[in-house]
Write a structure and sequence with these properties.
Elements: H1 6-19, H2 29-35, E1 40-43, E2 51-56, E3 59-65, H3 70-89, H4 100-114, H5 117-126, H6 131-138, H7 142-151, E4 155-156, E5 159-160
Parallel strand pairs: 1-3
Antiparallel strand pairs: 2-3, 4-5
Helix pairs in contact: 1-3, 1-4, 2-3, 3-4, 6-7
Length: 164
């Protein structure tokens, strides 16, 4: 597989969101998992274990630890779904073998799945850039919402951009 830009991986997530017709936060990750035909299995496992992609009858299955807090489960599910979507988008891609680059790619897809640019911009406009409220609305931490709004240019280091 050749080098890919961040926008390539964000586009993979955007296409999955579009196919699932997601137009309001929080993004129902389980619906996207089911829409791509990947079984989701949950189990109570030791606290050190978050989740994994396992194989049943040669097909991928997402395994998620229900003993972890809700926010952690969502981010784990988004990350694992990111790996699956990358493989579905590129027939030469493989599931990760613990290489940092492969996880960074899945993290980009996961961020776009949980905090899609079009929804963050839309909701930030509706709620006057209130990152605390938006964090609750999207089911993420305030820090994650603040960082996403900064990366989109909605919030600058000096403060919020009031351009409406």
């Amino acid at each position: 597989m050749g080098l890919r830009s961040d926008s390539y991986y964000r586009q993979i997530a955007a296409e999955a969101l579009q196919r699932a017709e997601i137009d309001e936060p929080p993004v129902p990750l389980e619906e996207i998992v089911h829409s791509v035909g990947i079984p989701l299995r949950t189990a109570t496992l030791p606290a050190f274990f978050s989740g994994a992609i396992v194989h049943e009858d040669g097909l991928p299955v997402i395994l998620l630890n229900t003993a972890r807090p809700e926010g952690h489960r969502r981010s784990t599910l988004a990350h694992l779904l990111g790996h699956v979507l990358i493989v579905l988008a590129d027939p030469h891609a493989r599931y990760p073998r613990n290489l940092q680059a492969e996880h960074a790619e899945a993290d980009l897809v996961a961020e776009e799945l949980v905090l899609p640019e079009y929804l963050v911009r839309d909701q930030a406009f509706k709620w006057f850039n209130d990152y605390r409220y938006l964090a609750r609305l999207f089911g993420v931490t305030e820090g994650a919402m603040m960082e996403r709004m900064r990366s989109l240019g909605i919030i600058k280091r000096q403060g919020i951009m009031w351009d409406y």
